């Protein structure tokens, strides 16, 4: 895979990357793509998957849980434990 292709993937938004990844999966599942092209788009799909995972990790790091007191009033925030 060319370096400029990887760079392009690194610039994609989550929505654009997931949309392209879904398109690649559909094309591969249809089984009508020549072998050489299948390998190339599979490699791009892997790069897109990594980009989506990276963006999700970044989003999770920014999400915070609002803490409240006994009266239900917001008292602050703490990192959200997503595990």
Automatic annotation (TrEMBL):
It is an enzyme of class 3 (hydrolase). One of its GO terms (molecular function) is exodeoxyribonuclease VII activity. InterPro entries: Exonuc_VII_S, Exonuc_VII_ssu_sf. Its main location: cytoplasm. It is found in: Cytoplasm. It catalyses: Exonucleolytic cleavage in either 5'- to 3'- or 3'- to 5'-direction to yield nucleoside 5'-phosphates. It comes from the Bacteria. Pfam families: Exonuc_VII_S. Keywords: Coiled coil, Cytoplasm, Exonuclease, Hydrolase, Nuclease. Its EC number is 3.1.11.6. Residues 11-69 form a coiled coil. Belongs to the XseB family. Bidirectionally degrades single-stranded DNA into large acid-insoluble oligonucleotides, which are then degraded further into small acid-soluble oligonucleotides. This is Exodeoxyribonuclease 7 small subunit. It comes from Bradyrhizobium aeschynomenes. The gene is xseB.
